[in-house]
Amino acid sequence: MIPIIIFILILSLLIIVHEFGHFIAARKNGVRVEQFSLGFGPQIFKKKFGDTEFSISLIPLGGYVKMSGDSQSDYKGLDYEYFSKSPGKRFQIIFLGPFLNYLLGFLFFWFILFIGYPSLTTKVGGLIDGYGAQEAGLKVGDKIISVGGKQVYFWDDLQSRIQESKSNPSVGVSVLRNNQELKFNVLLKNKVFDDQSGKKRALGIIGISPFDEIVEVKHGFFESAYLGMQKTINLTVITYQGLWGLISGKMSMRESMTGPLGIFFITSKAAKLGLIAVMHLIAVLSVSLAIFNLLPFPILDGGHLFLLGLEKLRKKALGVKTEEVIGNIGFTLLISLTIFVTYNDILRLYGDKISKLITK
Question: At CA 28, angle to CA 25 and CA 34, rounded to 5?
């Protein structure tokens, strides 16, 4: 029950932040907002404040802001309607939704780095047969303090330093063993993996696994902001590389995409790991939602921005029928994609159980 509640709360937070961006930008630009809805389907709560009706609906898998005159068919030429505003103002209204999601992701990364997060130490927990660490003489329990002459404090640092040395046949490793510093020359082996964008990538391996020793890592206020921005930018780059991998066919859509069911499964795992894991998940989902929404796809914010660009070039908006056709195509494609990723999630997460039930 608790994972379901956390799942709903996370989705609700992301949706509210996104729609609030549209709402506040619309109000700032003099557009009347008729409805601010969290969820779809039958309403379970509604309350009107000023010109806007705020509501919560039964299915918490989305939300929307309904503005006056936000379609060509509804537009009556009144000053407070969406289509009465210039393309620049409409751009602000559309863009602020995904922008606030992006900002939320950054703020969560910043907060996590500032309050502290768990990290594995550089203590060796296991050695892999046939690899350089075992052959050089490293032992379980050794604490690695430097790689290639550079100090390391956490497992992530250790991995980064090894990857920096992967073009060399070996790397110098210093360890603490019984309070004594020992130095080893460890052979590197390159192993090929598929990265997040589907590309083959060689990684330097010395053949060690981490010890189950965790410490809390904290950074200063401004350093956390800098590192949080770095994480946000890195996630953005990785996401766009992944999207390009899907478009170019280098990555399988079946293996790379997930829907509400998959997100619920990930949320359940994060909930078991604790608050920091849940906050990290919120940050990743919020940035990912912003990027997805900005894709030039009909019905998404990016699709609306694309049409605004066309309007700017043509010096006039699209016709009512054209707008309806594009909207219907976008809605159909989005529903089809949702069905596909949900079906895929069911097969990936519960396929074995379903097969056993069928074969009984």
Answer: 75
Closest by Cα among 236, 256, 271 to 106: 236
User: Which residues lie below 8 Å from residue 268, measured CB to CB, with a gap of 6+?
Assistant: 3, 7
**Residue 257, domain member (yes or no):** no
- The SS3 assignment for 219 reads coil
User: Rounded distance, CA 63 to CA 23, Å?
Assistant: 12
Q: How far apart are the C-alpha atoms of 24 and 197, rounded to whole Å?
A: 36
Q: Which of 153, 183, 217 is the last residue of a domain?
A: 217
CA–CA separation, 344 vs 230, rounded Å?
A: 32
Provide the number of structural domains found in the chain.
2
Tokens representing 321 are: 């029928």
What is the per-residue pLDDT across 271-319, written as a single tens digit (0 to 9) for each? 777 889 899 999 999 999 999 899 888 788 998 898 888 888 877 777 7
Q: How confident is the model at residue 2 (pLDDT cuts 50, 70, 90)?
A: confident
Distances (CA, A) of 145 to 40, 115, 149: 54, 25, 9
Nearest CA-CA partner of 161 in 134, 229, 172, 136: 172
Point out which residues pair with 118 in neighbouring strands: 216
Q: What pTM does this model have?
A: 0.81
User: Is residue 213 within 8 Å of residue 158, measured between CB atoms?
Assistant: no
* Exposure b/e, 291-313, CB count within 10 A at least 16 = b: bbbbeebbbbbbbbbbbbeeeee
Q: Which domain holds residue 80?
A: 2-116+263-359
- Sign for the pseudo-dihedral over CA of 318, 320, 321, 327: positive
Claim to verify: residue 82 and residue 128 sit in the same structural domain:
no
pLDDT digits (tens, 9 = 90+) for 148-181: 888 999 998 888 888 888 778 888 999 999 999 9
